[in-house]
Amino acid sequence: MPTAADLDSFRAKFAGDVIVPADEPYDLARRVWNTRFDDHRPAAIARPTDTRDVASAIRFARDNDLEIAIRSGAHSNSGHSTTNGGLVIDMSRMRGVTVDPGARTARANGGALLGELDIAAQQHGLVCPTGVIGHTGVAGLTLGAGVGRLMRNFGLTIDNLLAVELVTADGRTVRASATEEPELFWGLRGGGGNFGVATAFEFALHPFGGVLHRGTLIYPGDQVHDVWAMVSDFASVAPDAMTLIMAISRGVPESEFPAAVAGKPVVIVAYNHSGAEDDVARDVAPLHAGPKPVFRSEKKAPYLEIQTAHDQEMGWGHRSMIESGYGDGLRPAALDALVELAARSPDGSSFSATVQGGAIRRLPDDATAYTGRDARFDFSADTDWDDASQDEFNTGWVREAISIVEPDMTLGRYLNGLCETGPSQTRLVYGDAKMPRLTALKRAWDPDNVFRLNHNITP
User: Fold this and answer.
1) CA 318/CA 207 separation, integer angstroms
2) Tens of pLDDT along 153-167?
3) Smallest Cα–Cα separation from 310: which of 134, 149, 137?
4) In terms of C-beta density within 10 A (0-12 exposed, 13-18 middle, 19 or more buried), how is residue 301 classed?
């Protein structure tokens, strides 16, 4: 543990804030989005203002044998945004996004949030495909690949990444792009925080009018086979402008569901259409020709409004669990088991299958460290709750849901959709073919495994 003299020396050459347990802001500063990890107590929290501060924080941690946690939006589902007894490098003083509308590019600092990027780009009629919660950090989302409402139309977030500015384990600042440290750039696109602290990102932007056409269809749980057949068929022909998700859950709160399904297992199909308004009716017609829903809602809304629609619902102060994996289909027995599981699900929980393909598949799978481009669906089970005494029930439900579909899973896992950690999970994320290349990168850039609070690639 650092002594008082060590901390004084660190503060003397650090322009940002250094917060320790004795400081009044400490309890607020150590909080993270997922309150399952709010009991963690770092030895210190450093808030850098620039790359020199980041390098100084890394050196301080290494000199004092402190585990390093990096937080941007603090949304890590696995608790990697914090540490017990280590140093948190909190990037919140390095926010900000600038846009070059002529070049159609954006630069996001290492502490920027998705909402900043969305707003800055839309001011110029442009967009970068990002996640779905505005207070998520750009850094964590991007380094994990980045999925969201526009991914089938414009690709994953990493598919629009032009360059990353990174402070390495030895305190150097490097730039990685297709022409500068291209092998490192390959690994950063899906490799998470394994190789350093990202202090800036450069993205390509796309022209986008800023309106999404959306629809929600709700069916009784006993229609799951017919609905899945419709979704599976549609996944093969859906235009790139459409993202589509099918969820199996319970109709709660009951006041928000039709009486026929309130409190019972339900199947929900939701879509977003980011293309021309004239194409919407044609493109969604296969959904109208399928099973008859008990509820249907279709409307259009500003993209920025939709991007922040769940910010409060998914706000800080809740406990969360998510697990996911990729697959090409679901067995009938798995569908039945998921509906049965939904009948005894905790409030706020669901299993979902999100249609992949489109722009995601335009790059070969070996183009980036991310693995899973060829899968037809992203399967995910998640839940959130507030009472710590319900931890075992809620986390157990998620694990059971994922175990049901595990026989249907193919290669790859979405890094940001995993709570479970460990070597076996890391190997599932990347696959055996990519692990030697990633291990070599780790040895080259972080041979001492300084950056190990992640889905870790060991040197």
Assistant:
1) 36
2) 999 999 999 999 999
3) 134
4) middle
**How are the residues of the chain apportioned to helix, strand and coil, as percentages rounded to the nearest 5?**
35, 25, 40
115 sits in which H/E element: helix 114-122
Compute the mean pLDDT over every residue in the chain, rounded to the nearest whole number: 97
Residue 174 contacts residue 168 (beta carbons within 8 Å)? yes
* 366 pLDDT tier (thresholds 50, 70, 90): very high
Q: At what angle do helices 277-288 and 224-237 cross, to 10 degrees?
A: 140
* 397-432 confidence digits (pLDDT tens): 999 999 999 999 998 999 999 998 899 999 999 999
Start-to-end C-alpha separation, the chain: 25
Give whole-number Cα distances, 190 to 11, 82, 360, 438, in Å. 34, 21, 13, 11
Tokens describing residue 436: 């030697």
Among candidate residues 101, 90, 95, 147, the one with its CA nearest the CA of residue 116:
95
Nearest-angstrom CA–CA distance, 310 and 400 = 26
What's the CA gap between 343 and 263, in Å, rounded? 8
Helices (H), 259-411: 277-288, 303-307, 332-343, 391-405
- With contact defined as beta carbons under 8 Å apart, do 391 and 279 qualify? no
55-82: per-residue pLDDT in tens?
A: 999 999 999 999 999 999 999 999 999 9
How crowded is residue 315: how many other Cβ atoms within 10 Å of its Cβ? 11
DSSP state of 338: H
- Say if residues 241 and 275 touch (Cβ distance below 8 Å): yes
How long, in residues, is the chain?
459
Residue 386 CA to residue 397 CA, distance in Å, equals: 15
Q: Which of 282, 207, 296, 268 is nearest to 238 (CA)?
A: 282
List, in sequence order, every residue forming a beta bridge with 262; answer none if it has no partner.
Answer: 251
Tell me the two tokens of residue 212: 């999404």
Q: Are 221 and 291 in contact (CB under 8 A)?
A: no
